[in-house]
Amino acid sequence: MALSPLSFKLIALISFLLLSLSKASLATLGQHRRHPRYTPHNYRDALAKSILFFQGQRSGKLPPNQKMAWRKDSGLSDGSSMNVDLVGGYYDAGDNVKFGFPMAFTTTMLSWSVIEFGGVMKNELNNAKQAIRWATDYLLKATALPDTIFVQVGDANKDHACWERPEDMDTPRTVLKIDKNNPGSEVAAETAAALASASLVFKTSDPTYSKLLIKTAIRVFEFGDKYRGSYSNGLKNFVCPFYCSFSGYQDELLWGAAWLHRATKNSSYLNYIQENGQNLGGVEFDNTFGWDNKHVGARILLSKAFLIQNVKSLQEYKDHADNFICSLVPGASSSSSVQYTPGGLLFKMGDSNMQYVTSTTFLLLTYAKYLTSSHTTAHCNGRTITPNVLRAIAKKQIDYLLGENPLKMSYMVGYGSRYPQRIHHRASSLPSIAEHPAKIDCSSGFSAMHSNSPNPNVLIGAVVGGPDQNDGFPDERSDFEQSEPSTYINAPLVGSLAYFAHSFSQL
Fold first, then answer.
1. Residue 484 annotated among the catalytic residues of the structure
2. Which residues carry out catalysis (predicted)?
3. What percent of the chain stands above pLDDT 70?
């Protein structure tokens, strides 16, 4: 059948359109080939917000440059009942208690974030340092007396019986301490780790402060090691079930010694690790890293000395670090007990699982950095795992947290178009002093807690406990397991976001 002139025109037009589309597709493909690191996430924005969050957790006299303006001064007489100055520091989560154990761990992880990734934080480096200093200034106060550490301010049971702003709180500001007669080696060693790691952060920018931090860290560690015991024993009625030391104090002694070795380069700490490592090291397959359990973190930290500084006696820590890494790589370990949600999120615990996600992600990126610097890999039952594999796992976790998940929700408040609105946080859920100058007493605040309305104050950067094992998230204020933010969720996240902000520039 002969084609009409109109048919020829149509064929020519279609051919032209197909050719144009092909060229456009090739051009787009070329762009992606030129920019294989393209990502839809603004990691730089998320980094800034993850650090800003700590301003919302501040206790004490707030500075003039406070950006989280709906927060005001609080806890200005903390420590007065014991004739000591314990003003300052951080509230750990959505309540108004200052728990020294998780605060010290938060400080260590913020410092480690800066130590490993501060060089690529750009404008956020000073903000991260301010967040660290707010904690270390307090920890210096808490360790000012010899053989004594003030480990808590506030009665958690009475505080949790109220729902009130920190600016209004009238619950007892009970002061708890450890000393020779009531030891607390885990808190002492974690505090030493916090001060030692922070000393590295300020070594160049404020050498005088850095020297004070390391001097105090050495003294505090000696105290914790000399008078061994768990603070959960002597202070059980106050610290349990909130921040009991379930893993014992041995992991903190190893962790503290590792940080003191890194900060001082004093061989005595290396000797301490070599002589005590077997007794303090814990079980090899204990792969949970967080405010209570430091075994895996210590192994990753000590593996650096083996990988980069060639300290041969620490090879076992590299081997243990590899075992931890292998447990996270699907199919790489026969003994792996790591679970992922259907949407791909690491899942370990029903209560505040996101703390496990952020801490594990940080270890993945840090170990990848150490492996890259030493031109080596991880080994899993004969299988070689490259640093890029670890970074890919880490990126999947961070991207899930920021919104690439079944609910298309960011679990960081204030990031993205959809994020938790009803977080379990007293100051965020109650009207600010500016909006409601009159005091809101203990029981009156519960009407806000039980309300279905969004929190009136946006706690920018707060990362909540996160979804359940099936990727579900109800966004209910009463559900503290999933809806409560905490400082120790955010602290390791700062380092991970700094890495991705640098590696994946926005196009």
1. yes
2. 424, 475, 484
3. 90
Query: What secondary structure, in 3-state letters, does 270-281 show?
Result: HHHHHHHHHHHC
What is 59-276's CATH topology?
Glycosyltransferase (1.50.10)
Q: Where are the domains of the chain?
A: 59-276, 283-425+462-507
Torsion sign over Cα 137, 459, 190, 304: negative
CB atoms within 10 A of CB 392: 13
CA 256 to chain centre: 18
Same fold? 59-276, 283-425+462-507 = yes
pLDDT of residue 10: 43
CB 318 within 8 A of CB 378: no
Q: Catalytic residue among 167, 186, 322, 475, which?
A: 475
368-411: pLDDT as tens digits: 999 999 999 999 988 999 999 999 999 999 999 999 999 999 99
Which one from 41, 424, 425, 471 is the annotated catalytic residue? 424
Instruction: Give me the residue label for tokens 């809101």.
Output: 440
- Residue 475 is among the residues annotated as catalytic for this protein: yes
- Tell me which residues of the chain have a pLDDT lower than 70: 1-39, 281-286, 334-337, 505-507
Q: What is the second-level CATH architecture of the domain 283-425+462-507?
A: Alpha/alpha barrel (1.50)
pTM here? 0.91
Judge contact between 332 and 390, C-beta under 8 A: no
Question: What does each C-alpha distance from 232 to 84, 115, 178, 235, 244 come to in angstroms?
Answer: 23, 31, 10, 5, 5
